[in-house]
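Recap for those who missed Tuesday's class. We walked through two folding examples back to back. For each one, the amino acid string is listed first and its predicted structure tokens come directly after. Nothing is annotated here on purpose, so try labeling regions yourself before you check the end of the notes.
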Amino acid sequence: IESKTVFEIHPPLARLLFTKAASIVPFHATILPLPLKANASFGDFPYIAVRLFVAFFGVLLPLLLYATGRLSGYMPRIAMIPALFVIFDNAFIVYSRLILPDTILLFFGLLGFMAALLAAKSGAGKGWFFVILAGCALGLAVATKWTALGLFSVVIIVFFLARMYREIIVCALLVGIVYAAVFVPFLSYFPQGGKIDPVFSIYNVPWITELEFPKTHDPKTIASFL
């Protein structure tokens, strides 16, 4: 089926992951008119496969929160409290059922925060593995939603308080590199180029509708478009 260029307010990582998860189960792809109506048919879209994919990240969230609490010096019973909040929070069930990217965002963000704590415990000039892990994880979080920049700011504060100034630079560079790298496979999905579909009426404004994605995919042309 021919791909279609549309306007999206979030970075593309979650969409790429959802596409890969959906491709595990064969189905006939169709372009559905947006916004969808309550009684609209979704065809044979593999809901279960994609919902399980989101739920997998949700299962890991309590473990990450518990580990972060323990690394922060809290007793096991205290560290367990925020982990239990996640388990019994209905919002996370909604995220999974509606296939929203927020669970993936929180997973990568908290993974980066936990890695930063481990790096800070190692001390300046040490624990570079955890610094690299923090930068890559936070880069993936930002590539999911820009709200992850809040967690990135917290990590910068953690490194600053630990006087890990070189680590701040390395982490920031990795976040930028990973964020930019996510766009490479995403932009390859539109070989035909064309005008940008605003999808929703709220985005139907000239600075979006007048955009036209290039047909040639050399780095110079794409960089000029961006």
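Example two. Treat it independently of the first, because the proteins are unrelated.
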Amino acid sequence: MKWISVFDELPSDTDDVLVIGDGWDDMNWWRIYFYEADNWNTIDGDVVGAKSQKRITHWMPLPEPHKE
């Protein structure tokens, strides 16, 4: 899977996606979010406003679950 820039495309509303963003001290971070009504939302219920999208730079769909 490839990372998709938030400037090129945004995920469909309520789709869970993996995101990566610019962190502090030039570090990157990632977390599972869903995008709804112009806001990034964490699975923990935290909302990151649309103006904060500059912190989230890329996203990708979640991979298929592991099957044994």
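Answers for example two:
The mean pLDDT is 77.
The longest strand covers residues 28-36.
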